Amino acid sequence: MDAGTWYHSLPRFTRYWLTATVGMSLLCRFGLLPMEYMYLSRELVLTRLQLWRCITSLFVFPLSGATGFHFLINCYFITQYSKNLEKDQYARSPSDYLYLLIITAVLANLGGMLFNVYFLMDMLVVAITYIWCQLNKEVIVSFWFGSRFKAMYLPWVLAGIELVFHGSLASLVGIFNGHVYYFLKFQYPQELGGNAFLETPEFLKRIAPDVSGGISGFGIPPESRAPPRQAANSAWGHGTALGRN
Fold it and tell me: Of which family is this protein a member (predicted)?
C-alpha cells in the first residue's frame, strides 16, 4: 500500500487530527508559524482572552532533534488507536467519535492549565489510547523490545516511561481524562445503571450523520453491577433492561 492509499484509508476524524498535528508542527518547526502564539498559557487564555491557544496547543508539538522520536511515536499511536476506535467502535456513529474528541480536548485544556502543560498532544493521545484499551482490555499488544502484555496496561506503561524519562505528568492526566469519558459513557450507565450523560448533541449528528449498515461494537462492555430492577406485572410479560443505547 502506497502512502496516498494508506492516508486516505484512515477514517475521517483521525485523518484530520493527524494532518493538523503534522502540518502545524512542521510549520512551527520551520518558523512559518510563530511558536509563541501556539502554546497553552493559563494567564494568556484567562486574562488576555487568547482563546485560540486552546486549539493550537492541541495540534502543535515542539519539534526538535530531541523530541522528534517522541513526536513520531505519538503520530503512530494516533494512526493505530484513534483509527481503531473510529473505524471499529464508532464506525456507524462518527458524530459520537467527534464528540469524544471534543470532550477529551476540553479536559486536556483544563489539565494543561491546571498543571502548566504547554502542549497537549501527549494528553490527548494517551486519553484516546486509554479509552481503546479499556474497551479491549484482554487484547494482547506489542511494545518495545518484543514485550507483550494486555492492552489494559499500555497507558500505564506509557505514563511510567514519560514520568521517568521526562518528568512529565501529562500522560497521567491523559489517563485521568480518558477515564472520565469512559466512566461517564460506559461504566456509569452500563455497570451502575445510571443516566447517560454523554449523549452526542444533535448539531454534531447533523455535521457527521450516522452511517446505516455495517457492524460495529464497543469491544467487551463492562459487566453490569447495578441492582436488578423489579419489573411491574403486565399482560406483556417482563421487560428487559438494555445494557446500552
Answer: Belongs to the derlin family.
Q: Is 148 helix (H, G, I), strand (E, B) or coil?
A: strand
Range of the domain at 88: 66-207
**Domain total of the chain:** 1
Cell 461517564 -> residue: 184
Nearest to 167 by CA among 117, 130, 131, 209: 117
Residue pair 175/158 in contact by the 8 Å Cβ criterion: no
The owner of cell 419489573 is 231
Q: Are 136 and 182 in contact (CB under 8 A)?
A: no
Going by C-alpha positions, the residue among 73, 79, 80, 67 that lies closest to residue 28 is 67
**Alpha helices (runs of H) in the chain, residue ranges in sequence order:** 3-9, 12-29, 42-46, 53-59, 68-77, 83-84, 94-115, 121-135, 154-166, 170-182, 202-207
Residue 159 covered by a domain: yes
Asked if residue 125 is part of any domain, the answer here is yes
CA atoms of 212 and 104, how far apart (whole Å): 26
